[in-house]
Amino acid sequence: MTPTLPRANDAPTKLPAAAYDIACVRCGRLAAFLAEVRSKHASYFCRPVAPFGDPAARLVIVGLAPGMHGANATGRPFTGDYAGLLLYETLYEFGFSNHPESLGAADDLQLTGARITNAVKCLPPGNKPLPEEIRNCNGYLAAELSVLPEGGAILALGRIGHEAVLRALSLRARDFAFAHGAVHELPRRVRLFDSYHCSRYNANTGRITPAMFKSVFRAVARHLKRERAGERAA
Ligand code: SF4
């Protein structure tokens, strides 16, 4: 059956149920690892981490997977460790949020027009999910991306996020090569923007700098602004 995809002005008020399942244990290795981590860190979330942000987002940011002491601990993507610092600061700078930092599930942070999710919802050992785990989790991402309106934007943080997006949209990876700063035209006027992941490792090695990251966000903002202008003119 062909899904009914949202038009430009459609604004979902919540994500489809198929976009997330807190009880999912489809990946045996990851479920066992979470149980092990939970036994050492009783206060940690240690479950599949839900997308965070605006259900009506025109920008969906796709990372890799929860970090051990970040999202896996707090239950919110890119929150609690280094990886989120630049991301949330940049979202604030570009008007997508009401605070420049994400402190944890109890703060009043709100994203407007943007949502953050991961290709793999459970913490993988060594930050490295197996290919079958990425495939297992892809249905959730596909359900989430199914509500992205026409003319929306997807920002992939790293190659795994990029490839997960293409898989979720039934597009071939070889037609859309990952590169920092690359922009890919997808169906329904959606654009996929690529960035290196804003991890501590990439920041420390100089692979990603705040200027490089913000330059990608500028391109995203330009696209969304053009689309908005086009809608108003239509
Ligand atoms: S990674 Fe995804 S598919 Fe695998 S157990 Fe977690 S939520 Fe389920």
Helix content: 25-40%
Write the CATH fold name.
Answer: Uracil-DNA Glycosylase, subunit E
Radius of gyration: 17 Å
Tell me, what's the shape? globular
Beta-strand portion reads 5-15%
By CATH reckoning, the class would read Alpha Beta
Low-confidence runs of at least 5 consecutive residues: none
Could you characterize what this model shows?
Strand 5 and strand 6 form a beta hairpin. With 234 residues, the protein is an alpha/beta fold. Helix 3 runs parallel beside helix 7 and helix 4 packs across helix 5. It has a 6-stranded mixed sheet with strand order 1-3-2-4-6-5. The two termini are 30 Å apart. The chain contains 7 helices and 6 strands; from the N terminus they run H-E-E-H-H-E-H-E-H-E-E-H-H. The chain has a single domain, classed as Uracil-DNA Glycosylase, subunit E (3-Layer(aba) Sandwich). The structure holds iron/sulfur cluster. The site of iron/sulfur cluster (SF4) has 13 residues, from helix 1 and helix 4.
